[in-house]
Amino acid sequence: MIRVGVLRVDRAGLPPISRLDLPPADLAFAGARLAIDDNDTTGRFLGQDFEAVEVAATLDSAAADLDALLDQGIRFVVVLADAATTLALADRAGDRALILNARARNDALRGADCRANVLHAAPSHAMLADALAQFLVWKKWPRWFLVTGSHPEDRALADAYRRAATKFGAKIVEERVFEDTGGARRTDSGHVQVQAQMPVFTQRAPDYDILIAADEAGIFAGYMPYQTWDPRPVGGSAGLVPRTWHPAMEAWGATQFQNRFEQLAARPMREEDYQTWIALRMVGEAATRTRTADPAALRDFILSPEFNVAGFKGQKLTVRDWDHQLRQPILLTTGLLMASVSPQDQYLHQVTALDTLGIDRPETDCQF
Asked: 15, 154, 261, 312: least buried by Cβ within 10 Å?
């Protein structure tokens, strides 16, 4: 029996801008259940059995909940938490467990704050920003108006867009900060306020091709499309959004994958579901290939050049040994459809085009 913990750390706060984004009760857990089914499908022929132990924690209970999982002998824990909590849990686990990060995107977790006992199934800010930047430069939309939220996670995402602009030859013509003043974001009169305020906030900007919203906290970006002073598209945290998954994805066998998930969960798959699914599939694939349940052997194999896992993205996914980030294509999506997939064909790399997304080996600050 190979048991994996799935620790989702929920944070109290304001509801999302749109009620369509209200998180379902089984967020991430549904992805874990599908992964267990997939792992068991192959594992049963080898006498392997998989189980996911699901825990919905709070910031106050997360440490104790992790300890409880470890006390059960669980040596793989998928964590869905913010960057600070993920780092604290990784340090608490130490060499007792391998942490699979399925939510936190902060580049520092793959850089100065990297940990040897953490694998990243979630993409980094740098990967998402680079994916969008490649497409925008290919479109010949190199002039960006960057609007950043006032939260630390917003600033971290904005840093990734600044780096992507430099990396791919775009230019940020102006930056502005949207201050979060709190209060209700969904009211009967909300659309009236947005229609009055957002055009004024974005007026008098230098000529630009696209507004990039860096809004990891989900405060303002959803209001930006169709409300800018100048008639311009919006990308980043709203409009054209880089994602690991989208419920309309159909290419590379994804239709069958989506159907199986929807039959299991009675809802579309979200990014947290996909990232949890791929994290558990990494463990399952390693166990199947090595024919062992030994945690140390599985970790070593996942980090080896021989490891890869299928992710319904058109190519095999592998892990960067310098920062433990899962390489994967990034989908560029609208509300209804997938507009493109990065890396774009024009961007080449001596190892793999996937390493044009995010922090490459010569650039890394990670030292295990």
From this structure: 15
pTM for the structure as a whole: 0.95
Backbone angles phi, psi at 7, to 5 degrees: -110, 105
Max Cα distance, the chain (Å): 66
pLDDT tens digits along 187-202: 544 554 667 788 999 9
Domain 2-123+246-328: give its CATH architecture.
3-Layer(aba) Sandwich (3.40)
CATH for the stretch 126-242: 3.40.50.2300
Owner of token pair 């009675």: 266
The three-state secondary structure class of 179 is coil
Residue whose C-alpha is closest to residue 144's, from 80, 64, 239, 54: 239
pLDDT, one tens digit per residue, over 108-149 is 999 999 999 999 999 999 999 999 999 999 999 999 999 999
Positive or negative, the CA dihedral 238, 241, 247, 249 is: positive
The answer to whether residues 311 and 317 touch, using CB atoms and an 8 Å cutoff, is: yes
Helices assigned H by DSSP within 139-220: 152-168, 190-202
Tell me the domain boundaries of the chain: 2-123+246-328, 126-242
